[in-house]
Amino acid sequence: MTGWLDGRRALVVGAGSGIGRAVVDAFRAEGASVAVLERDAGKSAAITEALPDVPVTVGDATTREANDEAVATAVEAFGGLDVLVNCVGVFDFYRGLGDLDADVIDDAFAEMFSTNVKCHLHAVKAALPALRESRGSIVLTESTSAYYAGRGGVLYVSSKFAVRGLVTSLAHELAPDVRVNGVAPGGTLDTDLRGIPSLGQESRRLDDTPGRAADLAARTPLGVALTGADHAWSYVFLASSRSRGITGDVVHPDGGIATGRQTERRP
Ligand SMILES: NC(=O)c1ccc[n+]([C@@H]2O[C@H](COP(=O)([O-])OP(=O)(O)OC[C@H]3O[C@@H](n4cnc5c(N)ncnc54)[C@H](O)[C@@H]3O)[C@@H](O)[C@H]2O)c1
Questions:
Q1: Which of 73, 184, 215, 251 has CB atoms 3.0–4.6 Å from 142's, for a disulfide?
Q2: pTM of this prediction?
Q3: In terms of C-beta distances under 8 Å and separation of at least 24 residues, what long-range contacts does 242-247 make, across chains too?
Q4: Per-residue pLDDT reduced to its tens digit, 73-116
Q5: What domains can you pick out in the chain, each with its CATH number?
């Protein structure tokens, strides 16, 4: 059996849990060699224990240094890099501008946009020389919140619209050498997505929301509550040569949100 990613060398940033962790498993199942960059030491140790052949860099992906180190580690281990995936993100638990004290906006904006936006810039910048050499592919993580309001607060939604802008802008800039696409998951089960410290939310997990599975399914026309493992195949496709004619585009594994129809409104 041949895999969709046979021989591909990938770096997954934010791979310790949720969608990124599922991408690691799917990529490996499809034949890729995978390295990871993850901030959380416990999650990093768990990857090393479960997958001893995966080179793990423990570091903060909002910094240039951590991304440079992770790319160097991957290139040294694999002899090059074909794919960069970034699954880092933090949430704001639906805080509207009216919910934010004026004196918290500077810190909250810096935290949200540093993690959800700048992190992608550093990762792409660090990986670019190796990706140009391999004529590789980048997959960034958007969200339903990159297209619609209401599934996050003002900072989360605007940060995800910015990631959407990065996909378009980088795809334009990096063609024909490197393809750049996005995956825009809908609300996802079994992840560790957390809030930001300036809003006092760093220990709060979105996945702990009571009734979340039923709520997610009820929101979508397909009536599905998806997990990282479901989304991972969109990343596999965009990282593979099957998508070689696609750049600046997005796959939306979200149960059909764009149809505008909600399951609870069905007759
Ligand atoms: N959970 C959802 O409902 C949902 C829906 C749509 C989009 N997303 C997006 O999917 C992506 C993955 O989210 P998830 O739900 O799997 O959450 P997650 O928290 O399980 O995964 C994010 C990973 O990134 C790591 N991380 C966070 N900040 C980091 C940093 N500065 N440096 C290095 N690693 C860091 C975390 O430790 C974690 O392992 C995010 O971009 C999120 O916005 C999530």
A1: 184
A2: 0.97
A3: 242/4, 243/137, 243/179, 243/181, 244/179, 246/179, 246/181, 247/171, 247/175, 247/179, 247/180, 247/181
A4: 999 999 999 999 999 999 999 999 999 999 999 999 999 999 99
A5: 9-265 (3.40.50.720)
